[in-house]
Write a structure and sequence with these properties.
- The protein is an all-alpha fold.
- The chain is built from four helices and no strands.
- Helix 3 packs antiparallel against helix 4.
Length: 113
C-alpha cells in the first residue's frame, strides 16, 4: 500500500519520521496535535511569552506616565523625573527591572512544569 503524505504547516519544526509514523499508525488529528505539534512549538511559545511580558510591562509604565493615575509606578516615575530627583528615577528604574526579572523567572518556572 502506498500512502501520499499530506503536507502540513507545522512540518518545518517536526521530525518528518514522526509524521510518517503517525501516518502509518493512523493517529487522529487531535492526538497528532496534542502529542506531536504542540510539544514541538512550546519552546517558541514560551520565549514569545517572555518577550511579550517584558514589552507589556514597559508599555504599561509608559501609559501610566502619560495618564497620571493617583497611585502607580508611572506616576511616581514622572514625579521623580519632573522634580529632577535622579536617585528617585534610578530607584524606580531598578524596581521596574527587578519586577521584569521576577516575571521572567516566573515564566521560566511555568515552562519547567
Amino acid at each position: 500500500m502506498v500512502r501520499i503524505r499530506k503536507s502540513s504547516n507545522f512540518s518545518w519544526n517536526v521530525d518528518v519520521k514522526l509524521i510518517e509514523m503517525m501516518d502509518i499508525y493512523e493517529v487522529g488529528k487531535w492526538d497528532r496535535l496534542k502529542d506531536l505539534y504542540i510539544p514541538s512549538i512550546s519552546s517558541y511559545i514560551h520565549s514569545g511569552m517572555a518577550a511579550a511580558m517584558g514589552l507589556n510591562l514597559k508599555i504599561i509604565i509608559a501609559a501610566e506616565v502619560l495618564s497620571q493615575p493617583k497611585i502607580s509606578m508611572g506616576t511616581s516615575f514622572q514625579i521623580e523625573r519632573v522634580n529632577l530627583n535622579t536617585a528617585g528615577v534610578f530607584a524606580w528604574s531598578l524596581i521596574t527591572i527587578l519586577l521584569a526579572a521576577m516575571l521572567e523567572r516566573g515564566l521560566k518556572l511555568l515552562q519547567k512544569n
